[in-house]
Amino acid sequence: MRFLLVFTAASLCVATSAFAQSSDWLVLPVIVDDDDSWSDPARAKVSRSLSERGVGVWSSGQAATRFEERGSAPSAEVTDSDIEEWVTRSREAIRHLARGDYDRALQELKRAQVLSRKAADELNREKTRSQNVLDTCLYMVRALLETGNRSRAKAQVQECVQLVPRGEPNEHMHPPNIIRLYQDAALPDPQQTGSLVVDSEPSACDVRINGVRFGQTPFEMSNIYRGTYRVQVECDPSRRGRVHPVEVGTGKSRVFVDVRFDRAVQTEPSLRLQYSARPNQRVLVEDAQQIAKVLPAAAVVTISSVGIDVMELRVISGTQRRVGVARIPSGPTGPRAADVSNAVEALLAGECKDFTGPKPVPMGCEGADARSGRREASVPAAAAASTAATAEAAPARRPPRGQFITGVTLASVGAASLITGYALLAARGETGGDQGWVGALKIPDLEQAKGFQDQWINLGRVVYGTAAFGSAALIAAMPLVLPYQKKTPWWAWLSGGLGVGALVASVTVGVTAPSTGGVDCASLVTNFVDAQACVDHGQRVGAAVLLGTSAAPLITMPLVYLFRKSDKRLGLELSPTVHASRTGGSFGVQGTF
């Protein structure tokens, strides 16, 4: 293949979270007592029912992992055996250092550092262990220096300062050069540092950074290295605070901890809300919205037991424009699949219904008395009218409105760019043909021919750039605009088939492009025969480029449906790529697994 195509649309698609994770919903169990045996079966049935109706759903495990990464995680658990192994490796490293066996010392220290990094917030809570964490880290600095890795040693000593903030090395355990190196690192250049501001509700609660207690909220620590710190806020000394990972950059990095919310949210064994007493509706909505914001999720379906053998499903979204409440019969192991199906249909239709009786009956969208579990047999006319009105605002099976508008905008711009590319290719042919470059050389008028040649070259660059941009915009638009379907629709397969056909045509046209006969078309050409060869070659290459960039969005369409995240396809995010050079080309997919 003798054409050049550098096409990076796939990287744009992946950068925008290729398949629109924020459009997925979250099914969130709400536990009020210790009996949660019903929650996992119920969550699985509700998730499955939503997926069958074309709604993307966060899997339980993936949602918990994402929340721990972006929100908060439980304090690290360190067993006695972990501590024993950590101490043993540290002692072995000291012996190796004393004997001058620095390579073996490094091996032991690297293993010890794995636990230090993973559980610093727990190890640093106790002063002796915190000192051991710092000393072990500095042993590694010494081993790196002794093996000639001074640059790595400097990076390691900076990690020691971050790992145990405001620590003090034991001068009896380390040689003077290590102490000096640490002291220099503990006073970093202001250009390398930032500030961390911690506040909470309520205030006057203990603040721990990487496990080390510093003061009470509101609290600010300045002149600390940029990087990730693990922040805990604790109002009750007997309860570990959840760990909030905070990325400190230049300037002030702020973290606010709602202690009540921290106590309610749970990520082990799965993401859920757990309360000691039934929360009022406002608190539940705020907590669910906070979780949705962190993941993110387009909407949350809370499932809770509201009475004897009664389960309530409620849709909660960031704007509360989505409304839907359903009550269904339940049991010790959760509700029946048929009852869940009825409830999900009502939620997606924006209805508020009670299915616990012989027949479904409307209920107020604010629900019945949540404390007693009493259900409403009927609703006033005004409430019924309100319920009917909210149905119009119910979630459609197309993506959320804002996302859909963004997708339509991208698709419009992308299609316009591709069409413009084809028009420019035609204009380029005229500029290089008998009415332009070639015609001027036949006269001959070299000055005019040079002007046409420059225009022809510049138009080629514009054609390639316009085509690549248009294809990138269309690929990015696909996951944003395509409606949710349980299975890949026939028209998506047709689109994919057309895309493969266009890709084959692109390769064929590129491979069969006429040769320029060794002429450098970017240099001054004075012979009209050579100019015609350049024009013919350029038109074929341009056609191949446009066909290839047109193929990628068409192929993307079925891939969106195949790899949209669901319970059965955990975290699979792929997108098509096209790469080509003068010697060959390829088509594939890339993304995250």
Question: What are its keywords?
Answer:
593 residues; alpha+beta; Rossmann fold; Serine Threonine Protein Phosphatase 5, Tetratricopeptide repeat; four-stranded antiparallel sheet; 18 strands; disordered N terminus; disordered C terminus
Count all strands and give the number.
Answer: 18
Show unreliable segments. 1-21, 367-396, 566-585, 589-593
The biggest beta sheet reads:
8 strands, mixed
Beta-strand content estimate: 15-25%
Kindly report how far apart the N and C termini lie.
32 Å
- Counting structural domains, the number is 4
Using only C-alpha atoms, the radius of gyration works out to 32 Å
Lateral arrangement of strands in the main beta sheet:
10-11-2-12-13-14-15-16
Structural class assignment: alpha+beta
Mean pLDDT: 83
Q: Output the number of helix runs.
A: 18
Helix coverage percent of residues? 40-55%
* Outline: flat
